[in-house]
Design brief:
The chain has one domain (2-263): Rossmann fold (3-Layer(aba) Sandwich), CATH 3.40.50.1820. The chain is of the alpha/beta class. Strand 1 and strand 2 (8-13) form a beta hairpin. 46% of the residues lie in helices and 18% in strands. The protein has an eight-stranded mixed β-sheet, sandwiched between helices. It contains twelve helices and eight strands. The chain has helices at residues 35-41, 67-80, 93-105, 124-140, 142-149, 156-161, 163-174, 178-189, 195-198, 218-227, 243-246, 248-263; strands at residues 2-5, 8-13, 16-24, 45-50, 87-91, 111-115, 205-210, 231-236. The protein is globular. Bound molecules: D-malate (MLT). D-malate binds next to loops.
Length: 266
C-alpha cells in the first residue's frame, strides 16, 4: 500500500505491526532496491520502504537536506504508522541515516541491519568528491552523473550477467532530479561521524558487506562490527556495494537468521 507521509512516498506490505522492518535505501536509488527482501518478508512481517526526500517518488521540495532532516523523516514515519520498535535496515546512505537515527533514538528500534555502509564522515577528499559530483551535475546533467556513478556500485560480473536487471535499476536512477541528487550529496558531505557511538549500540546488529564493495569495503565494515557488542558480520562473496540486489538470497537468508535468533525469537 502506498501512502504519503509529510510529502514522502511510503510503501507498506503486510504483517502485524509488532514485527516491522523499516528499510532505508542507498544513493542514487529508491525504495525498489529492497523489492526482493519485501517480497520475502512481506508475508510474515510488516515491511516499510520509502523514497528518501528528493529521490524516487518523493518530491525534492527545496532540495536542502541534512542527515538530521532525513532522520526527522524516519521519526515521522515511525509516529505516523505507529510502529512498535521496528528493526531498522539501511544500505550505504541509508546506513548513514540509520546509524544517526539509532544514535539519536535507539530506544525506538529493536534491531539494526547495516548493509554496505560506514560510520565515518567524509574526509576532505570525500567532501571534494561530492563537490566534483555537484559540479558535474550542473555541467552535464543528472543523468550523466548517475550513468557514471551507478556502475561503480555493482560487481562487474553482476552487470555483465544480469543486464536486464541492472539496466532496470540504472533507468530508475536516471529519473532522479538534479536538485534531489545534489541535496543528497550535500547532506552526505555534511554528515556527522557516528563511530564513537558504535560501542554504545545495545540492540542486536547485523552487518552485511559485498566482498567486492569498492565504496564501503569489507575491512571498514568488519572494523565497525568489532566495535559493536552484539553484532554479526556477514561477507557476501561475488557482490559489490548493492548486496540486496546482487545477492538477494544470501542477504535475505542472513536477515532471516538474524531476525529469528536475535529479534523475534520463536
Ligand atoms: C550510497 O550507496 O548510498 C552512496 O554510494 C553512499 C556514498 O556516496 O557515500
Amino acid at each position: 500500500m502506498k501512502r504519503t507521509i509529510n510529502n514522502l512516498s511510503v510503501f507498506t506490505t503486510g504483517g502485524s505491526k509488532e514485527k516491522s522492518i523499516l528499510f532505508v535505501h542507498g544513493f542514487p536509488y529508491d525504495h525498489t532496491m529492497w523489492d526482493y527482501q519485501v517480497k520475502e518478508f512481506g508475508e510474515k512481517y510488516n515491511c516499510i520502504t520509502y523514497d528518501i526526500r528528493g529521490l524516487g517518488d518523493s518530491p525534492e521540495s527545496d532540495g536542502q537536506y541534512t542527515i538530521e532532516s532525513f532522520v526527522d523523516d524516519i521519526e515521522n514515519i515511525l509516529n505516523e504508522l505507529k510502529l512498535d520498535n521496528p528493526v531498522l535496515c539501511g544500505l550505504s546512505m541509508g546506513g548513514y541515516i540509520s546509524l544517526r537515527a539509532v544514535e539519536r533514538m535507539e530506544n525506538k528500534f529493536s534491531g539494526l541491519i547495516l548493509c554496505d555502509t560506514k560510520s565515518a564522515a567524509d574526509d576532505d577528499q570525500g567532501k571534494i568528491k561530492r563537490a566534483v559530483g555537484i559540479k558535474a551535475i550542473n555541467a552535464n546533467g543528472a543523468e550523466k552523473f548517475v550513468e557514471q556513478f551507478v556502475p561503480n556500485c555493482f560487481a562487474e560480473k553482476f552487470t555483465r550477467e544480469n543486464e536486464t536487471e541492472y539496466l532496470e535499476v540504472l533507468n530508475r536512477s536516471r529519473k532522479h532530479s538534479a536538485a534531489g541528487l545534489k541535496g543528497c550529496l550535500l547532506a552526505m558531505a555534511a554528515r556527522t561521524d557516528t563511530t564513537s557511538y558504535l560501542q554504545k549500540i545495545s540492540i542486536p546488529t547485523l552487518l552485511i558487506c559485498g566482498k567486492e564493495d569498492k565504496l564501503t569495503p569489507p575491512d571498514v565494515m568488519k572494523s565497525m562490527a568489532d566495535k559493536i557488542n552484539n553484532s554479526k558480520f556477514v561477507l557476501v562473496e561475488g557482490a559489490g556495494h548493492m548486496t540486496p540486489i546482487e545477492k538477494p538470497e544470501i542477504v535475505t537468508n542472513a536477515i532471516k537468521e538474524y531476525l529469528i535468533h536475535n529479534i523475534w525469537i520463536v
